[in-house]
Amino acid sequence: xxxxxxxxxxxxxxxxxxxxxxxxxxxxxxxxxxxxxxxxxxxxxxxxxxxxxxxxxxxxxxxxxxxxxxxxxxxxxxxxxxxxxxxxxxxxxxxxxxxxxxxxxxxxxxxxxxxxxxxxxxxxxxxxxxxxxxxxxxxxxxxxxxxxxxxxxxxxxxxxxxxxxxxxxxxxxxxxxxxxxxxxxxxxxxxxxxxxxxxxxxxxxxxxxxxxxxxxxxxxxxxxxxxxxxxxxxxxxxxxxxxxxxxxxxxxxxxxxxxxxxxxxxxxxxxxxxxxxxxxxxxxxxxxxxxxxxxxxxxxxxxxxxxxxxxxxxxxxxxxxxxxxxxxxxxxxxxxxxxxxxxxxxxxxxxxxxxxxxxxxxxxxxxxxxxxxxxxxxxxxxxxxxxxxxxxxxxxxxxxxxxxxxxxxxxxxxxxxxxxxxxxxxxxxxxxxxxxxxxxxxxxxxxxxxxxxxxxxxxxxxx
Length: 463
Prior knowledge:
Blueprint: E1 3-8, H1 14-23, E2 28-32, H2 38-43, H3 45-62, H4 79-103, E3 107-116, E4 120-125, E5 130-140, E6 144-146, E7 159-160, H5 162-165, E8 174-178, H6 182-193, E9 197-201, H7 213-225, E10 229-231, E11 235-240, E12 246-252, E13 255-261, E14 263-266, E15 270-272, H8 279-282, E16 286-287, E17 290-291, E18 304-306, H9 317-331, E19 346-348, E20 353-358, H10 361-366, E21 371-377, H11 382-387, E22 393-399, E23 405-412, H12 419-427, H13 432-436, H14 447-456
Parallel strand pairs: 1-2, 1-5, 2-3, 5-18, 7-14, 8-9, 8-14, 9-10
Antiparallel strand pairs: 3-4, 4-5, 6-15, 11-12, 12-13, 16-17, 19-20, 20-23, 21-22, 22-23
Helix pairs in contact: 1-9, 3-4, 3-6
């Protein structure tokens, strides 16, 4: 065998698995056909956060007077510079992963990897040269791509996916965003913030439909405050791209309507990259577009593993990383715990931000729990008032019998940095009263967690 481990894909699942394997004294190679770092670093998590930071700074400057600051002249977004900064940040992060590969003596094989029978991988490099490499173990970490619907065929110019949304040549005057999950909501927020008139279209009865219902309602209020148009229980039926602008036909509860838009952004989800990677060559089983694995990511073929967006579970970067570590540690003969999918935090980087973990209030009731719910609004937070960020709240759900934290749902400034407290608390089986009696610093946004816990037990002080 040429290697102890070959990883196909260098995203947050693949590169983390490779580094952990190297730490465990394995000889490792990573096969990557595009940019090192995968979609997350180059076309997802990192560059989108850069764009959102630019829009946040623009928003601060546009409202500088609210903070007692006089700005002379007109403040305007430089769209091209925002895009350039985003690409620069992504490039820097990709180079950082390349440094980590060198530091950990991981070989990078640029090209397309195809799984073959007998623990082998066919490698076609970027010059078209082919060779076969082998390893005791192979991890498939090929990620996902923007999902395409038949009625929204992406042409990369007028009907676009997330890649084009972060590299447009010029800022569109108008945009329709189909789908209000994390990707759709974040891009809708970015473009609306810098002056594009956005219409956000969601098929389900509320936006960010995987979040708690109260969180969805708050984000819709915040979006409408930004002058964004939000259509729920609606769908983009067709798009006519023959003219200078798109003619978008939308089905709404009130009937059909047609609106014009420079750009239609399809954000209806992602599709796992399982085609063309040789699953059929090795006889790897799939189900509903995903690779079938056990608790430690073993496929039905000995020595072949799969992690990240191509297996069943949340398509999140931090989940792929956790899966990669658990997978490699099992390969190395350690005794890792399986990934706890009931305690996975989810974050959406809109303005205001959203962060959640565990059960929503409705899900907890459906499961038969008797619950206590505590909610603390940021309108009652001194830090939020001082920061000019009073939208949102922290909502905690507890099992009434034992005080166990069943779920946490936050919307507000900086809440993506606050959710980890609850993730750790749930891991440690912390109770509501232990949170209430843990002194939180004042003034902070995070003291809203303590206050929300207190509110569930009628001990809250500041509301």
